[in-house]
Every structure is written in structure tokens, then in C-alpha cells.
Amino acid sequence: MNETELVNAPKPKRRGPLGLLLKWGGFVKFSHTLFAMPFALASMMVASREHYLYLAGLKKLPKDVPPLECPVHGIIHDIVTVKGFPGVKLFVLIVICMVCARTCAMAFNRIVDRKFDAENPRTANRHLPAGKISLFSAWSLCIFSGVGFIVAAGFINTACLVLGPVALFFICFYSLTKRFTNYTHVWLGISLALAPIGAWIAVKGGTMAELFHLLPIGQSLLPPLVLGIAVVFWLIGFDIIYAMQDFEFDRKQGLRSLVTAWGPESALTAAFLSHMIMLGLLLIYGITLKMRVAFIIGWLIILFCLAFEHWIARRRSLKWINTAFFRLNAVISAVFFFVVATEIMFPFFRRIQ
């Protein structure tokens, strides 16, 4: 049995509600939500902290919350804001938006790529080409989740409601880009970068005055934009590695990517450079927000993960590339969230020079 057959080997089926849930979760690769969600939640926590610091400067703190002196900034505001939590309602709405947007985009991707998936030995066993899910059901899920995203965004604030359809267009249209541009990885990176930017707008977009606040820098749009650009380069790097699996198939089918345009070796070099840029941008992000010890430790772990990812990617083994794509990148995003949350929840880290 070769590697492709091993990956596509049928797995034991579960029946009942759990089996149905696993089937639809597998259809949209729900586990891959681990890539974007941690960046969005980290951005949400930072935005929440900076939002209440902004309100504190205006002396407009919530009256129904007992005051507490902030150990870092020396001003009075509530314990929830120190911990970077925007409240249960907003947190739930942000998570719903993330899940619905990604489900819509992934379902659309599976729908428009179903003919290519059927011809590719690596993907022939996916749900649509294998007949496990009907095309009507797939379209229903795509439309339902898209509507769910817009409705949830509307409950957050006006900015999210207006920008929601734009974000949905970007993340869905990515699936068509491999047909006309070699830079499909860039488009996917921008789609994923909308998660941390969107989470920031969800917390701070209630008024245009705060959304476009310039100083201090931590309260401006600069941090989420820097993080978003870092996510773009992160995605470019690991999506190039993932595309290595289909190099021969994509070239025969006329599907475009940097791998088919430049060849595997040059594309891997571009992926490496993209990840180096990502690491630099993450440092700028941490410095901008005055993060210290925990963030630097996390940054070093991310550096190690990326270095290991590129080492195993050059083996060009299907099994190893899947490891590089999913496990290591899931670790990277989880580590990033953990260290940002640590910096916010335990402010003494920021006082250690």
C-alpha cells in the first residue's frame, strides 16, 4: 500500500448523531479551525484590554462593575478588562462568526473543487466525490453558515455588519483563485488574516472614533494590522508546503500555485522567507503592545516549530507534509494564543524588563 492509499484508507464509521457530526465536521475540516481561531481570540483579548483603557482615559467605565486599580497602568478600571475578556455575549458572537465563516468558505471550496477532488488520488475519497454527502446538502450548509455569519456579525456592531459580506466574499473567492493566479496562497493568507482584524473590530468598532484612534499605538488599528500581515506570511509559507503534495496533479490539470510556477525547490525557499518575515512581524506586534518574557518564550517556540516544519517538508513525503501542515501549525497558533493570554492575564510579565 502506497502513501496515498494509506491516507485515503477507509476508517471505521460511527453511527448515530455522533457519526453524523463527525461526517459533517470532516467535510469542512472543522479541526482546521485551530489555525485561525487562536489568532482571533488573542486579538480579541488585546482589543478588550485596550478598549477599556480607552474608556478609562475618557472616564466612561461601566458603572455596574466594582472598580479596581490596574497594577500596570495605575488607573481605575474593572477586573474583567484587566484580564482581556469582552464579556460572554461578545465572546460567543465572535466564536459563532469564526465557525460560520470558515464553515461557509470550506463548504464552498469543497463544492467548486469537487471535480478536481474526484480525479486526484489524494482527495478522491472526500465526501462529495465519494458520494457521502449530496451536492444539495453541501450548498445548504454553505448558505446556512454564510447567513449565520452575517446575522451574528450584525448583532456585534454596525462595522461588523457592513464589513461582513466583504469578508465572506474574500474567504470564499479564494477557492477560485488557483484557476487564474499563481498567488493563490496570498489570497488564502488574506482570508485567514481577516480573523484577528475582525475580532479587533468586533470589540472596538462600536464607534468610529475609537476604531480609528491613533494614539497610543496599542489602541490603534496598527496591532491587528501587523498581526494580520504576519498571518498572511505564515499562511503563504505553510500553504506552499501543503501544495507540494499535489505538484504533479496540479501541473497536469493546469491549476496554478507558486509550486507549479516556480518548482518545488524555489517554492520552498519562498515559503522559508515568508516564515522569516512572519517571525519579524510577530516581534513588532509584541513590542508594540509592550509584551515581554512570556511572549519572547512563545516566539522562540514558534521559531523552533517553523524550522522543524521546513526540515520535514523537504523530505516531500506525504505523511511528513501532513504533519508539517496540521500538527505543527496548530501548535504555532495555540502557542501564540497562550502567550498573548498570559501577558494579558498576568500583567507582571510586562513589568519585567
What does this structure look like?
With 353 residues, this protein is mainly α. The chain has a single domain (28-351), classed as Tetracycline Repressor, domain 2. The protein is built from 16 helices and 2 strands. It has helices at 3-8, 16-27, 33-58, 79-82, 88-112, 114-119, 135-156, 158-177, 184-204, 208-211, 222-243, 247-253, 258-262, 264-288, 293-313, 318-345; strands spanning 68-69, 76-77. Strands 1-2 form a two-stranded antiparallel sheet. The chain is globular and about 60 Å long. Mean pLDDT is 78; it is low at 1-10 and 64-80.
Label this structure with key terms.
Tetracycline Repressor, domain 2, 353 residues, single chain, 2 strands, disordered N terminus
- Quaternary structure classification: single chain
Strands of the biggest beta sheet: in what spatial order? Answer: 1-2
- Show unreliable segments: 1-10, 64-80
What is the CATH superfamily classification? Answer: UbiA prenyltransferase
Structural class, judged by helices and strands? mainly alpha
Count of distinct strands: 2
Distance between the termini: 56 Å
Main beta-sheet strand count, sense and barrel state: 2 strands, antiparallel
User: Order of SSEs, N→C?
Assistant: HHHEEHHHHHHHHHHHHH
CATH architect. name: Orthogonal Bundle
Query: What is the molecular shape?
Result: globular
CATH C-level: Mainly Alpha
Tell me the fraction of residues in β-strands, as a range.
under 5%
Radius of gyration: 21 Å
Number of domains: 1
